[in-house]
Amino acid sequence: MLASILASGLAAGAIYALVGVTYNTMFSTSRVMSFTAGQLAMLGGVFGSMFTLKLGLPIIVGFVLTLVCCAIIGIITEFVAVRPVLKSLDQHLYVLSTLAVALMIQQVAAIKWGTEPQPFPRLVGFGEAILDEKFWLPVAACAVTILCLEYLYRRTLVGRAFLAIAEDNFAARALGLPERNLRVASYALAGVIGGVAGYSGGQLLLAFFANGGLLNFYGFVPVALGGLGNNRGAIVGGLALGLFQQAANFLVGGIFSSVAVFTLFIVVLLAAPQGLFGAATARRV
Amino acid sequence: MTALTTTPAQDETSGWRTALPHVVPFLGILVLALLLPFVSNDYWVLIGTRAAIYWVLISGLNLVVGFAGHLAIGYVALLTLGAYTTSVLVAGNVIPAVPVFAALPIAGLVGAVFGVIVGLPALRLRTFYFAMSTLGFATIVTQIALAWQSVTGGGIGITGPEFPAPFNTAWGFYGLCIAFAAVTTWMSANVARSRFGRALIAVRDAEVAAEATGISKPKMLIAIFLFAGALAAIAGGLFATLQTYITPDAFTFDLSVLFFIAILIGGRGSILGPLLGTIILTILPEIAAPLAAWSTFLYAVLLLVIVLVMPGGIAALLDFRNRRPLASNRSIVPRPAALAEIVRQRKGGKLLKLRGIELAFGNVKAIDGLDLDVTPAQIHGLIGPNGSGKTTTLNVISGYYAAKAGNMTLGDEALPPGQPTLRAPCGIARTFQTPRVIGEASVLQNVMIGGSIEGRATFVEAMLALPRNGEDERKLAAKARALLGVVGLETLADVRADRLQHSELRFIEIARALMLDPDFLLLDEPAAGLSNDEIERLAALIKAICARGTGVLLVEHHADLIFDICHQVTVLNLGRTLAAGTPAEIRVHKEVVSAYLGG
């Protein structure tokens, strides 16, 4: 049983962690938490299933097309729901505008794709039982994504420009960084990460429109645990959440695992509002 | 005070006259609702019943979303909870069956408790976090309803409660739901119009200022979470009856979206707006049948349009009064003499004493061993270069920062550090460097906020419009109007505060602070941005306040104003006292002249 808990916990945790990173990627350049993060992951599964199973495209083509579509959705989010409300960030209108876009995505997916969960193709065909592809694939995807992000942020100019904007938007603009384009790029990147999360988790979660709302919540818990904008915190938090949830699932049964996760979320928010790894909040007066 | 209470009769008639335009639309909707059964068929009665039930929930949720500004997007969970609680109690499959009219209040209690639990994160965090916690709750409630088969019947479901005659027909039940809706409208309107409603808006738009007036955010929020949770659960019980048979599928997230968006389309801080929003959103999919499947998409588009194009919603469209242009050449003419009728005269009084205060932000010492005495009936000036710790000192006194070392005493008692909401009861009021007023509330309401702790009626009394609440309201309104006269803004009393000029906002803040009738008044750069004439009037006003026995601590950069009206001046530099003494001594102090005044 321990092995099953570990396998399914790490797999689910890796998906949550990637959704958490999706939140953070959008947050870092715009200071906006977007409800589309979970929807992007849902679309990763739906697009993946659509391109490979329904349209019969080769796996690699389907994968690339999925990521491109998710990136486009990310960019649309930036144009429709984020840019217009950035002027008055303190009014938190982004909560509403991104919620509206997320609802539209979910509703279109429900109507055009169907409200039943649909199968997701086997991609590699390697491993069985607890080493089944559906368990190790999300973990591998998570690891590769982290490595790519580390390379991006540490070794490339664009990545450093992202960091500069995340650190101090005004100073970065004063240095002449194209803040607007970088923000669009970060939303495309978030789309890709969300797409990877959904695609790699497709066999575990299936291609199902309602995954969006679920992943919105389960992907946000690691962000709350790890602190806003803290990717390392989100990864650790995501994996911990996955293990915690699956352990509760196996030990006390399905209903109470969600109750346990919710309780954990509320307790952490009350005890450490800035997250376990986050910095203290800014001065108010 | 005597001058204020001599004309109650006139107050009452004018009160009715001003209230009438607000009440008429509600009465109109009620009359239309009561006419509905006579002009239509059962199908429309069903739609009407549904709208009424939704409104029972939304009228409570409106206080959370529209007034307190907390984005509760998962309230369908409390509807579900109420529906199942009522159905299970009436069906008697767990405990012996309970009559439906007893089951509804029990469901209300359960809903109130869970309303608070789901709302807890809002006490510390706003916006996205709270939205997420309600969303998470909505997710797990559906899962539990599915999995807990012995009680909820799982996916098969359970029969909804049935009401006894005469409420067991479509029309009878419609009447019952309309009655519920009317009562909840009345209750939520009472809360909204009371000092609790104003305090909710204050916490939403000017939290820091609300704390300085002694408004306790947790108490306020818990009260409305109880209220909104109870109403949502009662709506759930009615909803279960309407459905006659409930399964988890009946409570889709789309319902949550409808509740939430009805309020935003209606407009923040309004009751009529969300009521119209509820009616429109309930009817919309019915009159455009092909759109029924796309209704959530439609709601989402509406939400986006509202946010991007008209953030004020329906309420802003209906707000004709605030579209009339204001006079452009108005000037503020305070009448300090009128202060004598409102503020009591103090004799003697306690000393506000700071000893050895130290405070650091990281490695920067903002205050480094400061001693300061503020004496009643004296004006104490606090000056110094930028970054010398003046505003920080005010923030330590008003409890926004807890000093690392040193102590503060008021008379013989220590002032508890780091607790801003405890300052107002101690008689310490303040204004802010950047005026913190509620833009969406009227000038009068902004000033009334200052007297929040003087109200004696409880939340329940306010909700039921009991006499003590009416008395509070009349007293606060009269005092606020009188103080607006003192600062010279009485003609603008009913104007939205965000339409005013910067200098007028500064005087509103002073009036709000005076509502407390404070022993000590802390003014943070009150003259910044004022014209020379206005500064002169401000000086006269501050002197008059001081003459009533109030100790004033004045942070200012206008040296002329400081030397003109202060009795004592303390000069700060790098968090330390550079010099202290009378204005005459300071003016010729060598170091002060070289460090700050310039020679």
What features would you highlight for this structure?
heterodimer; A: 285 residues; ABC transporter involved in vitamin B12 uptake, BtuC; 0% strand; globular; B: alpha/beta; 6-stranded mixed beta sheet; disordered N terminus
Fold and architecture overview:
The complex is a heterodimer of chains A (285) and B (599). With 285 residues, chain A is mainly α. In chain A, 75% of the residues lie in helices and 0% in strands. Chain A has one domain: ABC transporter involved in vitamin B12 uptake, BtuC. Chain A has helices at 2-30, 36-54, 59-82, 93-113, 133-155, 157-167, 169-174, 179-200, 202-205, 211-226, 231-252, 254-271. Chain A is globular, with a radius of gyration of 18 Å. Chain B starts with 7 loop residues before the first helix and ends with a helix. Chain B is an alpha/beta fold and 599 residues long. Chain B has 24 helices and 12 strands. Chain B has 3 domains: 21-54 and 66-252, no CATH class; 350-422 and 549-599, 3-Layer(aba) Sandwich (Rossmann fold); 428-517, P-loop containing nucleotide triphosphate hydrolases (Rossmann fold, 3-Layer(aba) Sandwich). The A-B interface holds A 33, 80-81, 84-85, 91-93, 95-97, 99-101, 103-104, 106-108, 111, 213-214, 216-217, 220-221, 224, 253-255, 258-259, 261-262, 265-266, 269-270, 273, 283-285 and B 71, 73, 117, 120-121, 123-129, 131-133, 135-137, 139-140, 143-144, 147-148, 207-208, 253, 257, 264, 293-294, 296-297, 299-301, 303-304, 306-308, 311, 361, 391, 395, 400-401, 432.
